[in-house]
Each structure stands twice: as C-alpha cells, then as structure tokens.
Amino acid sequence: MKYILEGCVDSVESAVEAEKGGTNRIELCSNLIIGGTTPSINLFHVVREKINIKINVLVRPRFGDFCYTDNEFEIIKRDIEMFKEAGADGVVIGVLTPEGTLDIDRVKEIMDIAKGMHVTLHRAFDMCKNPLESLEQAKELGINTILTSGQKNNCYEGRELIKELVCRSDGEVDILVGGGVKADIIEDMVLETGAISYHMSGKVVVDSLMKYRTSDVNMGLDSLSEYTIWQTSRENISRVKNILEAIINNSTNQIK
After folding, report:
1. N or C: which end of the chain has fewer CB within 10 A?
2. Domain CATH code at residue 184
3. In whole angstroms, what is the distance from residue 76 CA to residue 17 CA?
4. Nearest to 62 by CA among 39, 37, 43
5. Domain annotation covers residue 216
6. CA angle (129, 135, 136) in 5-degree steps
7. Cα-to-chain-centroid distance, residue 168
8. CA pair distance 29, 15, nearest whole angstrom
9. Rounded to the nearest 5°, which phi and psi values hold at 251?
10. Is Cell cycle set as a keyword in this record (predicted)?
11. Quick check: 23 and 199 in contact, CB under 8 A?
12. Counting runs of H as helices and runs of E as strands, what totals does the chain give?
C-alpha cells in the first residue's frame, strides 16, 4: 500500500521542513492562519527551486465561503492556467452553489482548464449539504482527491463519515484526511477509517527575529501577534510518517 502524507505549507521554510520531515507531496498556499488562500507565483517558483516533491497549489481567491462571484471565478480560472503553465503538479479547488451543493458547471470548467493536473476538491466538501452525493459527483467529474475532516472541525470527530467515504469511494477518489492530523491520533484514524492519505501542517510557533517591538500598533486582527510565525516542524511531520509506515508495513506483512 502506498500512503500519502501531504504537507500543507505557506512559506519556503515550511516547504523545506515538510520535505525533510518525510512528506511526499505538499499543498502550497498563503495565509494558512485563515484557512489558506492562493499563493503568489513567485512563492511557487522559489518553493519549486528548493524541494523535489510534488506541489499541488491551493486556488482560493479569498477567505470565507466558497460561493464565488463571476469576477472571483474568473480569477480562479486564470490562476489555474498560470500555475499549470508554471509547472504545478496539481490544483486544490472547490466551488459551491448558494444551496450548499457542488457547482457542477463551474467545476467542469475548472477540470477542463486543469486537464493533465492532479485535482483535489478541498474542504469546501466539508461545507456541502450532502457529502455522499458530493462524493458521487466528484467521481463523475473526474476529481482525483477529496480533502476532508469528515464535516467536523477536526478529523477525529469526523472519523465515522471519513470511514464511510473511504468505503464508498471504491478507489475512484482518494480520501485525503485533514484537520487536526497529528501523531497521537494517526494510528486510530488509520485503523478506524481505513484511510491511508493524510494532510497536515505540522505547525509550531516560531518567535519573530524582531528585537524592537511595539504594542501600540496591530497590523491585523487584535488576537494575532505580528511577532509570532507559524511554521511547519519536520519533527511533527516525521512522527506521523513513522507511524504511518509502521502500520502499513505491518499490514503488508500480515497479507503476505
């Protein structure tokens, strides 16, 4: 069995750490602190220069829901074209209707533009009204992967739905488990759901290099400090990788 361990990163430093920790693919984005948005093309280029694993690029023009205006959808399409031309291995996308279903017509347009690339349906799936219906639609659309926490805030809480999705996917769509993936739950997740593809940031808080600091000015949300940086930890990635490999190797030996 071949597992996927995808690192979700928003900086060159995190991408390098994720590869060193043992990820075999990354999802590149910006602004992970708000759930991720489309990265800049130059972030992609520099990351591509620094690592040797596959890069799937998140295409999400803004924070918030996944019901997009015509202008926002035009940006999505142009960004996919840009990253395809730049050599990205895949794109991570999701577009919903106001009623909470996949926007089939728009996803079809995306699939046409992204032909030849790996396409992941991101956690817009977790905002769908009917996940089992959306799974069948994803199959029909030719989507390769669904990233999901089982429609809960973290994957451990959503493990019952994840188990059902893995069963119903019939190997046609890879169920990529995300949302709270870490070493202390990974064994339970594999054994209870049957999923062997996981997505994680493995983040730790790194102190800013700034020596001079002021508390009188805040550049964003009051709850966030300008002097702390979220960055992927190779150790956090490696712990999950080692557990995944042990479980899969054990299963392979039992089959033999």
Report:
1. C
2. 3.20.20.380
3. 28
4. 37
5. no
6. 110
7. 21
8. 10
9. -65, -40
10. no
11. no
12. 8, 10
Between CA 196 and CA 243 the distance in angstroms is 11
Report the number of distinct structural domains present in the chain. 1
Residue at 212 is within a domain: no
Q: What is the DSSP letter of 215?
A: S
Q: What is the pLDDT of residues 134-155, one digit of tens each?
A: 999 999 999 999 999 999 999 9
Q: What pLDDT was estimated at residue 225?
A: 78
Instruction: Report the distance separating Cα 49 and Cα 39, nearest Å.
Output: 15
* 214 within a domain of the structure (yes/no): no
Tokens describing residue 229: 């940086």
Question: 68: domain range?
Answer: 4-204+230-255
Per-residue 3-state assignment (H helix, E strand, C coil) for 151-192: CCCCCCCCHHHHHHHHHHHCCCCEEEECCCCCHHHHHHHHHH
Contact of 201 with 9, CB cutoff 8 Å: yes
Contact at 8 Å (CB) between 15 and 51?
yes
198 residue type, one letter: Y
The Cα 256–Cα 253 span in angstroms is 5
pLDDT digits (tens, 9 = 90+) for 58-75: 999 999 999 999 999 999
The tokens of 34 are what?
């708000």
Residues in contact with 75: Cβ distance below 8 Å, sequence separation at least 6, in sequence order: 61
Is residue 49 one of the residues assigned to a domain?
yes
Angle between helices 12-21 and 41-50 (to 10 degrees): 30
| 27-31: average pLDDT | 97
Q: How far is CA 197 from the centre of its chain?
A: 11
Shortest CA distance to 144 belongs to which of 92, 185, 86?
92
Whole-number CA gyration radius for the chain: 18
Distance CA(186)–CA(41), nearest Å, equals 33
